[in-house]
Amino acid sequence: MKNSIVNVQERRNKILSNLNANDTTTVKKLAEELAVSEITIRRDLKVLSEMGKVDWHHGVVTSNGIELDQGNSLRERIEQLKDSIAAAVPSYIEDNSTLFVNSSSLCWRAINQLAVEPLTIITNNIRATECVRHPQTSIILTGGEIRYPKESLVGTVTIQLLETMQSDYTLIGCDGINIENGVTTQNIYETQVNSTMIQRTKRKVICVADYRKIGVSSNYHVANLSAVDILITDNFANESVIRDFRHRGITVIQVSK
């Protein structure tokens, strides 16, 4: 069964629900109950144990009593991972470059981190005007229709402006990235904006995504995987998927908290 953000999350929720009901189980039992391989269960348990949700030793799994969908510690962990991913971005962008930045929340964090160098940033994220920036940095909003609640600029005006420009780099967040479907998003209105940014990039496309987006596919196609030069993610990302990305020639950077 193909992975998606939804079914991976649902499977991990079921693992935790099982543990909340039974306190202790085994990898073999979980695999049988969820109709997946033991390798898949071990992959899920690796993530859940690193997040402090379960204890897992010698095939025996016990709960730490925190449900995946309500634990503040999980949300805090993801926020910390996003900050770490954003902090890695400046190392891959040269001073005085021009870059397109899409409206993802992770890219918004990265704009703040890019305050260490002078740049020209062209973005459809209205909130970019709130960011910390270098004194010599220019931030240009694309214009277009404002889509709430995300406050992103989309539509014909946005695309027409982008088509008059070229960037050295594009920094793009996504809702999924995998071998089969490449870069994908849940927002149909942003699909063509993101695609145009990537198409108008002269040097490198940098994708930023936490582990929840790696190896999964969302609703709308943005670009083939071959369009991505650098992927910045975290150490929780699916190892086999990361290996496949590297075999495809993508430079993959993995950060920790």
From TrEMBL:
Transmembrane segments: none
Keywords: DNA-binding, Transcription, Transcription regulation
InterPro entries linked to this entry: Carb_Metab_HTH_regulators (IPR050313), DeoR-like_C (IPR014036), DeoR_HTH (IPR001034), NagB/RpiA_transferase-like (IPR037171), Tscrpt_reg_HTH_DeoR_CS (IPR018356), WH-like_DNA-bd_sf (IPR036388), WH_DNA-bd_sf (IPR036390)
Alphabetical list of SMART domains matching this protein: DeoRC, HTH_DEOR
Occurrences of domain HTH deoR-type (ranges): 8-63
Keyword Transcription: yes
Lineage top rank: taxon: Bacteria
Keyword Ribosomal protein in record: no
Pfam families: DeoRC, HTH_DeoR
GO molecular function, one term: DNA binding
PANTHER family with a match to the protein in the record: AGA OPERON TRANSCRIPTIONAL REPRESSOR-RELATED, HTH-TYPE TRANSCRIPTIONAL REGULATOR SRLR-RELATED
Listed name of the protein: DeoR/GlpR transcriptional regulator
Species name: Lactiplantibacillus pentosus (Lactobacillus pentosus)
